[in-house]
C-alpha cells in the first residue's frame, strides 16, 4: 500500500439518522486502518456522537478543495453531483437505499435519477440494492453495513416481565411501516398477549399515532442511548416496506441478541441465505405481523433459536470487516 488513503465524504447535514450514523462509522473504521478521512458538511457541528474524522464546514460544497483527495464520496442523492463536480473520476457514490423509490420523493424522482446516472461507481451496503441500481450502472460493489461494537453483547440478561417490544422508526415515513407495527401490536394484545410497547423515533410522534398503546416513547437518541434502550428490550418488530434500503435497527437488534419479527422485504431477506434468524411476515400486513409477534412472545424456544442465529448473522456487520472491503475497493481504484 503506497501510503494512507485520503478520502472525503460529503454529508448533506449532520442530523441524527441511521444514514449519517453509517457514514460516520465507515469513516472511523477506515481511520482505524490508518487512512485519512475528512467529512465535509453543510450541517451544524456534530453533537450526538464522537467522531475521529477531520471536519470541514461549508456553506456549499464547491467551496471545498478536493485536489489532494484520492476519493470524494457522495452519500445522498443531493451530494452525488457535487462529488462528481469536485473529483470527476475520483468520485464515488455510497448508497444505502435508492431515494427514487421513496414515496416522499416521487415528485423529484427525475432529478434523483439524473444524479444516479452520473458515471460514478456505487458502493452498496446490501446485495438487495444491486438489481435496483443496475438500471443506472453495472459498476456496483458490495461493502456491507456497519453495526457499531457497543450493540454486540456476549450475554443477554433475563427477559423482562412483562416483556418489552421495541418498534423503531418515524411514522411520518411510510416505508417504515409504523402503522402496520401498531396494528400488529393491537392484534397480539387482542389475543391476550401482555407486553409493554416501546417506541423510538428520530422525530416526535405524529398526530395520528395511537400513543395510548405506548408505554414509552423516545425521540432522537444518540448511539449510546439507543444501545441502552435496545438492550433493555426483549423483542423487536420491524414492519418496514421494500423501499427500505437496509434497516439498521433490525441489524442492531440481531447483534444485541434480541429476537425479531421482520417483514419479508429484499433488504431483510438479504441478511442471510438461510432465513431462520428471525420470524418473517409479508409487508403491509398487520395481521400476519401480529401472528408472528404472538408466536415469538409465546414460545421461549423460538426466541432462543432466533436469538442465537441472529447473533451469528450479525457478525458480518463488524466494523473491521466492512473497513477491509472499503479499503480493498479504494486501493484497487487509486490512481498511481
Quote the beta fraction.
15-25%
Q: Helix/strand/pairing class, anyone?
A: alpha/beta
Number of helices: 11
According to CATH, the fold-level topology of the largest domain is Rossmann fold
Strand runs, count: 13
Strand order of the largest sheet: 3-2-1-4-5-6-7
Q: Cα distance, first to last residue?
A: 11 Å
Rg calc: 20 Å
As for the number of domains, it is 2
Uncertain spans: none
Order of helices and strands: EHEEEHEHEHEEHEEHEHEHEHHH
CATH H-tier superfamily of the largest domain: Glycogen Phosphorylase B
Q: Tell me which CATH architecture of the largest domain applies here.
A: 3-Layer(aba) Sandwich
Mean pLDDT, to the nearest integer, reads: 96
Q: Give a short account of the largest sheet.
A: 7 strands, parallel
Which outline best applies?
Answer: globular
Helix content: 25-40%
CATH class of the largest domain: Alpha Beta
Fill in the keyword field for this structure.
6-stranded parallel beta sheet, 11 helices, alpha/beta, 18% strand, Rossmann fold, 336 residues, globular
Task: Please give the structural blueprint.
Blueprint: E1 6-11, H1 18-32, E2 36-41, E3 54-57, E4 71-74, H2 77-87, E5 91-95, H3 109-116, E6 122-124, H4 130-133, E7 140-142, E8 163-168, H5 178-190, E9 195-201, E10 216-219, H6 223-231, E11 235-238, H7 248-255, E12 260-263, H8 266-269, E13 279-281, H9 286-298, H10 300-314, H11 319-333
Parallel strand pairs: 1-2, 1-4, 2-3, 4-5, 5-6, 6-7, 8-9, 8-11, 9-10, 11-12, 12-13
Amino acid at each position: 500500500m503506497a501510503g494512507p488513503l485520503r478520502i472525503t465524504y460529503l454529508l448533506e447535514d449532520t442530523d441524527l439518522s441511521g444514514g449519517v450514523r453509517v457514514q460516520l462509522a465507515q469513516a472511523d473504521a477506515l481511520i482505524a486502518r490508518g487512512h485519512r478521512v475528512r467529512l465535509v458538511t453543510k450541517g451544524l457541528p456534530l453533537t450526538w456522537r464522537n467522531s475521529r474524522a477531520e471536519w470541514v464546514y461549508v456553506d456549499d460544497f464547491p467551496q471545498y478543495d478536493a485536489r489532494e483527495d484520492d476519493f470524494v464520496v457522495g452519500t445522498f442523492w443531493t451530494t452525488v453531483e457535487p462529488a462528481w463536480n469536485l473529483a470527476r473520476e475520483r468520485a464515488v457514490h455510497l448508497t444505502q437505499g435508492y431515494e427514487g423509490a421513496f414515496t416522499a420523493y416521487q415528485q423529484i424522482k427525475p432529478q434523483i435519477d439524473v444524479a444516479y446516472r452520473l458515471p460514478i461507481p456505487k458502493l452498496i451496503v446490501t446485495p438487495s440494492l444491486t438489481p435496483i441500481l443496475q438500471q443506472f450502472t453495472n459498476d456496483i460493489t458490495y461493502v456491507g453495513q456497519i453495526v457499531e461494537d457497543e450493540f454486540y453483547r456476549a450475554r443477554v440478561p433475563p427477559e423482562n416481565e412483562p416483556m418489552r417490544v421495541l418498534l423503531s422508526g418515524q411514522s411520518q415515513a411510510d416505508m417504515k411501516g409504523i402503522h402496520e407495527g401498531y396494528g400488529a401490536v393491537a392484534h397480539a394484545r387482542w389475543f391476550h398477549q401482555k407486553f409493554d410497547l416501546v417506541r423510538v423515533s428520530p422525530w416526535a410522534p405524529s398526530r395520528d399515532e395511537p400513543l395510548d398503546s405506548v408505554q414509552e416513547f423516545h425521540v432522537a437518541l444518540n448511539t449510546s442511548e439507543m444501545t441502552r434502550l435496545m438492550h433493555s428490550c426483549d423483542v423487536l418488530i420491524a414492519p418496514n416496506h421494500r423501499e427500505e434500503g437496509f434497516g439498521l435497527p433490525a441489524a442492531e437488534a440481531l447483534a444485541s441478541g434480541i429476537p425479531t419479527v421482520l417483514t419479508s422485504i429484499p433488504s431483510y431477506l438479504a441478511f442471510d441465505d438461510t432465513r431462520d434468524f428471525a420470524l418473517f411476515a409479508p409487508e403491509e400486513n398487520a395481521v400476519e405481523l401480529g401472528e408472528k409477534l404472538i408466536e415469538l412472545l409465546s414460545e421461549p424456544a423460538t426466541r432462543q433459536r432466533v436469538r442465537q442465529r441472529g447473533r451469528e448473522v450479525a457478525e458480518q456487520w463488524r466494523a473491521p470487516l466492512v473497513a477491509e472491503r472499503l479499503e480493498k475497493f479504494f486501493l484497487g481504484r487509486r490512481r498511481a
